[in-house]
């Protein structure tokens, strides 16, 4: 490695790690010390990352306010230095950071808001995929329906929230005063996906959430209906399963259906 390449590498390390060893290779200017000059670079680097976080988590920023969000953002930058050249992926660990790091962990709505915004961002960026059409389902003979398995659209994901973060998010999105944050008696089971170019989410009842999770793991339709029968009204389990399936297809949540081999 050339001396210049070494200096570049050590300069980058110093910015990322907070190590001031690089100062021995920087000269003072006539007006400022080397520590001040290097601090400008370090601050600018952190501020740029926090700016990217504000773009990715616009409503969390609105909920916290600018000063508190920036304080949280710089704490995240310090705890989790960027390891990817694309800023889009820098804040991927923010929900886990907020869940595990005081004082933010004392307010679980923050981690939930970050998780919801992350999932919506991921849905927007997910790859394209063909959509299963209702007409295609008529091509399956009745005797094979029990063996049908389904492929979710690449943008579809499930998130469980322990707080009313979805209601807070919706109020903020509509420029309304958000409700007081509260922990829910039962988790809110959200399904997130992209419809055309718009990220969407809706809360699922417990039964539908179970069916979606199992269907996403390749469980065939017949077994899914057997599982639904354990929840409520066994005689109508197949009809309920067909109703959920119809809703998924019309919402653009599935790519394909096929007979399990």
UniProtKB/TrEMBL annotation:
InterPro entries: DUF2063. The keyword DNA-binding applies. It comes from Bradyrhizobium quebecense. Residues 7-98 form the Putative DNA-binding domain. This is DNA-binding domain-containing protein. Keywords: DNA-binding. It comes from the Bacteria. GO terms for molecular function: DNA binding.
